Amino acid sequence: MASSFLYAVLTNRVLLVDHGSDMAGIFCEPFPDTSWLLPMDFPLTDQLHSLQPGNVHSYGHLLKMNNLDISTVSQAPSFLHLYLAYNYDKHDKLFFQDQNQGFLQKVPWLILKSDLYFVPYLFLLPSFQQELGKLFPDKEAVFHHLARYLFHPSNQAWGLITRFYQAYLASADQKIGLQVRVFNRKASPVSVVQKQILGCIKKEKLLPQVDERKRIAFPSKNKTSRAVTIASLYPEYYESIKSMYWMNPTVNGDVIGVYQPSHEEVQHWGNNIHNLKAWAEINILSLSDVLMTSSWSTFGYVAQGLGGLKPWILHVPAGNQTTDRPCPRAKSMEPCFLTPPDYHRIPNTRGRPHAVSPVPHVMKCEDAYNGIKLFNPKQL
Predict the structure, then answer these.
(1) Is residue 241 in a domain?
(2) Fewer CB within 10 Å, N side or C side of the chain?
(3) What are phi and psi of 238, to 5 degrees?
(4) Which residues form the signal peptide (predicted)?
(5) Looking at residue 380, what is its pLDDT?
């Protein structure tokens, strides 16, 4: 939605959003005296959810039928389907070719489906670079500004956020967020992921260590209270860390509270209440002073962007071995565009990051080798 909004701004379009039933009541309207919701009587509503990749109304199909030469299309259609989700094919990806943007300007209605943050690639298109440079002098704050402008929690979501914050976080001297996303529990056993988390906490000194030889900590006027929020589908990581700090005092006398808003076990696709809880937890994580997120997780990306935070990125092990670099620090708070087209050769941030980059502020993501994201070049 953030990417689509920015594309609409760049191309002088109106953005209308089909929230559907699973997103009802999650956001407040961002635009005063108007609405970004697609009207209920929109003529194509019945077709929206049936538009799949490669359908006859898709831009990729149009290019395929015309041998990838858009100049042979004599008249622009009344609407086109832009399919920009993670499994899009080579024809759909041609949306990102700059020479095709002129044709898209002639199409009255663009129906865009995406689950990707494709903003970084817009910065590679010459047609948009001048305007984007004016809009965003700070290249790693693009999503931060878009999200803060667009995504306001509804009253119901805000109630979940504020009640949790006031009950568990408000009185803490430091708030620490830990987001654990495991894509395959069989490939990433709980014990191994837990060891990786603890390795990160110890290596980066995110929390004080416990003293297993003592039963109580000596009184101290300088002790710090720290509140840890764990966001995960599963309860095991919360239970383990909570038990560790409950059963043992910290070596410096700090008081550690560990909390988890929910543990749904599985992701319930299309479930409104499940999505409401997720949105609330994303916002709770964004209120952290220190944040650890999981690699490849858009849940974590949104939290860090909302909060303006550069997280430690937890590399969730795929196997039985942890790594000696469990959680490198992100160099940018921007989300990653996980599956971009490969029209441009983007270098890694290691070594000589500017060697062949079309623009100095679009580089490889820290956690997804094929992904790209926005950086402030001076920080690389």
Answers:
(1) yes
(2) C
(3) -65, -50
(4) none
(5) 56
Among 50-59, 173-182, 201-210, 220-229, the minimum mean pLDDT is found in: 50-59
Does one domain contain both 324 and 279? yes
Instruction: State whether 196 and 104 are in the same domain.
Output: no
What pLDDT does residue 352 have? 39
Express each pLDDT in 242-284 by its tens digit: 999 999 999 999 999 999 999 877 777 777 888 999 999 999 9
| Same domain flag for 96 and 231 | no
Question: Whole-prediction pTM value?
Answer: 0.92
| In the block, residue with structure tokens 């038990």 | 243
Asked whether 232 and 263 are in contact (CB, 8 A), the reply is yes
Does 210 share its domain with 332? yes
CA–CA distance, 114 with 15 (Å, rounded to integer) = 14
C-alpha to C-alpha distance for 170 and 168, rounded to whole angstroms:
6
In a domain, 216, yes or no: yes
CATH number, domain at 221? 3.40.50.11350
Q: What sign results for the dihedral spanned by CA atoms 337, 129, 147, 51?
A: negative
> Tokens 């000589």 identify what position?
352
How many Å apart are CA 240 and CA 198, to the nearest integer?
10
Q: Is residue 47 part of a domain?
A: yes
The answer to whether residues 96 and 60 touch, using CB atoms and an 8 Å cutoff, is no
Mark which of 137, 168, 196 sits at the end of a domain: 137
pLDDT of residue 348: 61
- Percent pLDDT > 90 in the chain is 67
Strands 27-28 and 152-153, by their bridges, are: antiparallel
* Nearest alpha-carbon partner for 40 in 16, 12, 5: 16
Residues near 338 by beta carbon (within 8 Å), at least 6 away in sequence = 86, 116, 117, 296, 298, 365, 368, 370, 371
Q: What is the pLDDT of residues 142-168, one digit of tens each?
A: 999 999 999 999 999 999 999 999 999
| CA–CA distance, 173 with 227 (Å, rounded to integer) | 8
